[in-house]
Amino acid sequence: xxxxxxxxxxxxxxxxxxxxxxxxxxxxxxxxxxxxxxxxxxxxxxxxxxxxxxxxxxxxxxxxxxxxxxxxxxxxxxxxxxxxxxxxxxxxxxxxxxxxxxxxxxxxxxxxxxxxxxxxxxxxxxxxxxxxxxxxxxxxxxxxxxxxxxxxxxxxxxxxxxxxxxxxxxxxxxxxxxxxxxxxxxxxxxxxxxxxxxxxxxxxxxxxxxxxxxxxxxxxxxxxxxxxxxxxxxxxxxxxxxxxxxxxxxxxxxxxxxxxxxxxxxxxxxxxxxxxxxxxxxxxxxxxxxxxxxxxxxxxxxxxxxxxxxxxxxxxxxxxxxxxxxxxxxxxxxxxxxxxxxxxxxxxxxxxxxxxxxxxxxxxxxxxxxxxxxxxxxxxxxxxxxxxxxxxxxxxxxxxxxxxxxxxxxxxxxxxxxxxxxxxxxxxxxxxxxxxxxxxxxxxxxxxxxxxxxxxxxxxxxxxxxxxxxxxxxxxxxxxxxxxxxxxxxxxxxxxxxxxxxxxxxxxxxxxxxxxxxxxxxxxxxxxxxxxxxxxxxxxxxxxxxxxxxxxxxxxxxxxxxxxxxxxxxxxxxxxxxxxxxxxxxxxxxxxxxxxxxxxxxxxxxxxxxxxxxxxxxxxxxxxxxx
Amino acid sequence: xxxxxxxxxxxxxxxxxxxxxxxxxxxxxxxxxxxxxxxxxxxxxxxxxxxxxxxxxxxxxxxxxxxxxxxxxxxxxxxxxxxxxxxxxxxxxxxxxxxxxxxxxxxxxxxxxxxxxxxxxxxxxxxxxxxxxxxxxxxxxxxxxxxxxxxxxxxxxxxxxxxxxxxxxxxxxxxxxxxxxxxxxxxxxxxxxxxxxxxxxxxxxxxxxxxxxxxxxxxxxxxxxxxxxxxxxxxxxxxxxxxxxxxxxxxxxxxxxxxxxxxxxxxxxxxxxxxxxxxxxxxxxxxxxxxxxxxxxxxxxxxxxxxxxxxxxxxxxxxxxxxxxxxxxxxxxxxxxxxxxxxxxxxxxxxxxxxxxxxxxxxxxxxxxxxxxxxxxxxxxxxxxxxxxxxxxxxxxxxxxxxxxxxxxxxxxxxxxxxxxxxxxxxxxxxxxxxxxxxxxxxxxxxxxxxxxxxxxxxxxxxxxxxxxxxxxxxxxxxxxxxxxxxxxxxxxxxxxxxxxxxxxxxxxxxxxxxxxxxxxxxxxxxxxxxxxxxxxxxxxxxxxxxxxxxxxxxxxxxxxxxxxxxxxxxxxxxxxxxxxxxxxxxxxxxxxxxxxxxxxxxxxxxxxxxxxxxxxxxxxxxxxxxxxxxxxxxxxxxxxxxxxxxxxxxxxxxxxxxxxxxxxxxxxxxxxxxxxxxxxxxxxxxxxxxxxxxxxxxxxxxxxxxxxxxxxxxxxxxxxxxxxxxxxxxxxxxxxxxxxxxxxxxxxxxxxxxxxxxxxxxxxxxxxxxxxxxxxxxxxxxxxxxxxxxxxxxxxxxxxxxxxxxxxxxxxxxxxxxxxxxxxxxxxxxxxxxxxxxxxxxxxxxxxxxxxxxxx
Lengths: 627, 857
Hints:
heterodimer, A: alpha+beta, elongated, B: 6-stranded mixed sheet, 29 helices
């Protein structure tokens, strides 16, 4: 056994393993070539999941007759030629690997014709054996037919999934490319049935319309942002329209579909507070970055990229999404049929007196519970005005902080879907704030929800979620205005923490100060808390600090604003009225009025809605009063 | 013996309907007698029975049940019969003696309107023909949709009649007496399989009065000598046979032949415009490719557009603009097509509604169709092209009509309507009251049952109903003694008795009375609604027509987007310049990659293209694609090419394929010559001609001579000068490029690979040098031995070793005779010579003479 140079064919077969993992990889490579050729129409036809046949036809510029023989050679490409070119790759293909790899493991027939020549050329390759090219008349463009893929590598064949599964992967590949290039008309035909046809009229909306349908497209809004270097564009669905998985999310860098955990988490972070936990918006996110700031050559299938300035990218994505969501109020769901709303004059609700009562009552209640008396003390706070950087490590899991709380029920992830499924189009997760319509509080249900009749809707207000949100809004406002106030505890509390927690707390003492806590070391595993943000019950103080500490530990590189917000969520949640508590009339009134009359968003910071509305029509339908 | 009164009545009716199968209503059946019965029994596979008619022998009889008659009627119509429906005009119960009977309508091939009798995407036209002073007036009426067209043919009447019939495909024709005597017209109608009805009742008379009466004296009606009688004839015929309101035929659309491109039936067939040649199927035809319509009206509209390609650039471009807009906006197109799929056949529904043969289900169908209109109108509010704006403005939301039906008719009416239950609650107070009363009275009965039980103490006393006695009280035998005096015994059963009481009967009368009243009121209300809808027929018709146009344009846009067609530039330049053209049907059906080809035809240097090359190599497809692309451009659709400039043509002629018309006793060659004759007579310099190998079917030289001559004539701008594609096997003709101006050679590129040849399907300049006939034969599967021998013979022929020519008797005879003649003359002279009287000098002279003559030969 001596070390010998692999013969070319064998070498190709091995390399093919990396590049052509499965039919969809071959399709991806071929379609990328078509795009690089400037095609405006690309058709992908497959038989038996692509294993029996893949045919990619395009009307691009074609290959020069003299080059046709070289097309199948490894390391031969028209797309780069000098080392410097690697720094500025604008084409999708560049390695000179695709055709060679595919030809090594399949029977390939290449037809191609350029505009200048009357006729095209046909060149066949059989599992690495390249035949001579011959002249053949035809259309301008290229058509590559790949037959009997992997026939000569049975080991790879065995690893392939069912035809239908492989076809599914191919469809996804084509779909992602189609979305990246609305100016190209892409067709996908599976076993003779046309599955995809995009118009190629350069309109992203029209393209998405043909892929996702009218309902989705009507729920999309634009995403647009640039920081001068990085450009972010695309579309995202309204907060009320979400999916269980990230199936309908596509990410691109310079029009190349990629997988990026970093971008995904930036999106997740930006959408918290607008959508429920575990819900994912429909999203097309395109990043435009100068070619010298990224390295595509890292992954064999070019699926992942390395960014040279990750945090800038993260920030750009985060802000793009946040802007897209914040600029308009939450849209109501489509309901049918559209009937003009009856506008009635509404009497003024005497808020002030009720509010005072409410707060007094709250305080009373708190006071009876424990002996601590709260003194309100204002505190000026200065935060760094230039803090715009945002952390980007992984997803933020709020749900976990509540596992210990028995009173607050954790909402299942697919709640959005369940709601939609069960209650059909009549349930709105958002509520159009038509303040002219009078509302009428009916009562409290299960000691958790307040029932309100408003116009033609039955509203259910989740008292905990609503109060939580109100509190958070108040706290957040104060944080922003930098007029935070901590409430001094009359007798400081001693809290026992885990060693790591304590270390974290002490490390971030200033941070805790910002958000209204005063904590000092108290030896071994204890700390002493002398001030808290308003309205926390004593037993909660320790829990809150724990949770905030845990949050900080997990997200080591968290920057202050996000952490502060998260911390406030935690506080607000703890401090809010729990589910299962009886509320008196006045309390209900105040709560409801704060929700309906004041608030702009109606989901609690953890993403659970505070209000749902059931249309009268839906109820009537259930009783079969109407069809 | 004499016929029974009923039979006499029958004969009385039959007298007037001798040309129909008479459906004679007897109770629950339609019966046919005598000859009609025998025909029906045979055609409909029914049992032939008999009936006593007063004579010794029974009258042959055959019948069908009333409620399932429609299917049988349709069958008879399809088989080419007319059916007259004779109903009982009075209620038999109320009349002494024979009930009055009369024919209420005659169903003819062009006037059948039962649902499903006519294909949804086809019209069903009646044609009326009126001849006067060498001119023809034609009128086409579709009774099922209400459309009416009229035109005048003032020259080449037979030729143009063929063209018009080809455009409308009527199923029936009513012709004037002068036409009856015109054998040509009758032959033409027969060749198209059109059912002919003769003018028995003066259909064509007093046209002015008839038209004024029907259409008013508005300026829209042409009161001339030729078209007016034709229209009057059609109207009168329909009125007479249908005997009902035909107000949905409310306007005449005039057109002239010159508005549309001329395509004779052969060409239509050769190009497979609406059906394939092989099995007359829709799949595989141009119509199949272009028809992506969602409504019946759309389907008929596309067929109309294809049957009548336009010649006006303005109109063509108008359509193209609409197609372009719909192509560019995929969301608009998609949404409109989705909304259109909810629209039913409004035109035919209205036809039935106006003719009073519609039921509640039809009304509901109309309602759901109309309900789509407001959505379509609002979705189209932003359109920019003129034709789409037109369409949108012609559409009427018709919410009032839809609303009326919504309020009046229940959403899902029952199948049988004679028992009522199709009017919605809340529509009519009286009806609702009656129905309430009915419901109440039924509960009164229940109450009565309870009361009686209590009163009499009979626990299992029941109140029930049957058709014979009506409502009754039923008591079992064990209790019959407890029955009070007021009970009147009506029926005895094995285990009980049935009684009635005055009270019960009173209640019964009220119930049954109400029930009847309710049903008849429902029918009355239905009639009211129907009449009200009829009043809006013009609005509805306009919207329906607009939907047809919209659907057609969407269909063109959809297929143009999917198949990647381009917008043709249409003008009067006379230039046909196609870049990378493809055949729309072949590219769709073929698995292989379609090789696109360019085409350049004009009125100057590229007038006639000679195309040579082997068969099966794509010559025919290429030529057909040029014709089809031109046709598509002129119907306002995008075309399969990279780009196309189409100068409008006035007609397309084709002479393609070999089809023996054995039935009419013509051989292939004869048929071919007929078609060529037709073309040469009618083609102008603005026509497009396709000759596919003329000169076959006769000997080689004859064929070549004819082809040559036809080519010269066609290419001559003074004689014909049409743009022509001339495919031929006669390579000799390729030399004509050098001698005749406007002629260019093209051929199909072929690649030889050893023994094989590969068809490249590419059209290139130049003449082919070979027909590759033997190779093609080999490809076709001819046995090797035959091929080998053929190659041998071919070689010999080409090198001259063997000759095809027959012995040349005439030529040699001429040669021999000439020499012989001189010898014979000399012999004759010698014979005449009298040697006895010859002097030596004379003999010497004569010898010199002979020698000289012989030397001259």
